Structures are given as C-alpha cells and as structure tokens.
Amino acid sequence: MTTGEGTVRLRPPNNTLDPRAVGWWRAQWLLLTAAPVVVLAVLGALIEPARFWLLLPAAVLAVLGTGCAVLLPAWWFRTHRWEVTDEAVYVRTGVLRQEWRIAPMSRIQTVDTVRGPLEQLYRLATVTVTTASAKGAVRIEGLDHETAAGLAERLTRITQDTPGDAT
C-alpha cells in the first residue's frame, strides 16, 4: 500500500472471527436450504401426479444444503482474518479465491456496526468500514458484538486523528 510518505508493509491479518460465527453461518445455510425444501415437500405432498418430481429435488437440496452447512462454515472460519493498524484496516476472505481488502485510515468515511436478527441470536456483529472506493466497503463479519463495538470506537478514534489523503 502506498501512502503520501511512502510504502507501508502489511503483514497477513492475524485476528480470527468469533467461533460462534461457525454456528451463525450454519444457521444461515440451513434457513436458506429449508425454504425451497419445505415448498417442494408441501407441493409434493399435495400434488399426487408430480410427487416424485417434487420430492426428489427436495431431498437432493436437503442433503446438499445440510452438507454445505456442516462443511463450509468451518472452512470459512479457518480462512477469514482481519487486522487493524494505525495505517489501515484490512481483511482476508475467501476459500478458493482469496481476497484482501485494505482501507487506509486516511480514506475511511464511515464505520458502522450492524446486527441482524441471527447475529443478535449468536451475539455477533458486523463492522462495515466505508471508503470512497468503487469496490465497496470493507466488512468484518462474525465478530463478538462487544469486540465489534470496541473496534468501531477504535477505528473512529484513529480516523479522527488521521489527516485526510488529498489524492
């Protein structure tokens, strides 16, 4: 990353997400899987001539969705990392295709903390760091809600003390 003073070297992000993120991701998968499975199963129970052609995809979706809910969240947990330094906030996400997102402190415009219903159930939160980047905000999902609040406060304090980048 290049700043007005030169190049800043960032080490790989070290912080992991909260372990409860695995359960949160599993719940999301199961809910997304359950909706079409229930619709197909109900239709299959009601429509005799199409029963096989409705129950078969319901069963396939149920097996695939459950398999994804069991395997993927643990894999994601091992690969998602985040870090905050005095110069930048950055995340590494992705399993097969890893992506690093870096937001220099001088470019941060807003810091938001969001807690959806499932996140609240798991006592988690998402911190969204918005910059002027066309690529969009940097999101750190799956944080303990108290850690997220502290991080948002810390980022706000650091960005207030960081002079804006004129470029």
TrEMBL record:
Give the YdbS-like PH domain ranges.
78-154
Tell me the Pfam families matching this sequence: bPH_2 (PF03703)
Record has Cell inner membrane as a keyword: no
Q: Does the keyword Ribosomal protein apply?
A: no
What keywords would UniProt list here?
A: Membrane, Transmembrane, Transmembrane helix
Give the residue spans that cross the bilayer.
29-47, 53-77
Q: Which InterPro entries match?
A: YdbS-like_PH
Tell me the protein's name: PH domain-containing protein
Which species does the entry assign this protein to? Streptomyces pulveraceus
